[in-house]
């Protein structure tokens, strides 16, 4: 299999101040953004050159804020405006050399328009019970992408699948799997798509690609993947490439099956495959905008904390940031420092304050000290 390696995101070890993008949506977005800035600032405090956060000037809509418009044409126009603005923001930062953006939850319809244009895939490595699964969600094509045309009492949604995008997604997924499991190829590659609706085109593309790359790929209907998961489970080091129609729904179930985090505490990354984006990575929380919690200081900050640690370690030259942050989070959990959704009684700010108190002063090179936390884990 002749595939070029995927380079791991590298932190900036030079004197140039790294730039991290920040895009904020409504609902709890401003509170989540504040958590991200505080934690990233603490983790990178020891850097000699610091980190610059470039925030998008637009506050993007959530689904609930759009629904308040109560007019389909107005909602459609605002959705398009948000998508166009965020796409420009991503492309502008990428052209300047920025490699990471953190985005809070925004309206899904706007978001998927951008993911289609930037050819994004969502990547999540799930581990638990001695097994690991790499989930690569195809967000660049399919039923979640496309455009709506409204007539009286009817919405017509038009979307596409293409050979080019299918090849880009599968090729990236295989390269990424080789990076996650460098000692050998994945034991199994599973693709979960509604390919029976596409006149045999998708399975023909996949068969040709698998033959060209010298890999074995099983293309299955989503219900078949579910049945196998229930009956047999999935073996260790399974690579799952899936359309959003299945992966969006099943993500939380796979988290549960592999004994990983709850959805509310999970962050993931979206990798842009458009050649003009130079591998720009967008980090996000898995949870939504939680508009009902806006302004109440009750949103669970754990996913945002984890995203800040990933950005610090991968893109700001802070080795050890993820490990130290995870030890601090475990210590907080043992002490019962949690928001109400996790059965605790602490506010968002209280959890973040407690976390920052556990993270010692950064050591040389930018990573926070973790030794003091070893006994807490």
From TrEMBL:
Pfam families: Iso_dh (PF00180). SMART domains: Iso_dh. It comes from the Bacteria. The keyword NAD applies. Residues 19-355 form the Isopropylmalate dehydrogenase-like domain. Keywords: Manganese, Metal-binding, NAD, Oxidoreductase. Its cofactor is Mn(2+); Mg(2+). This is Isocitrate/isopropylmalate family dehydrogenase. It comes from Streptomyces achromogenes.
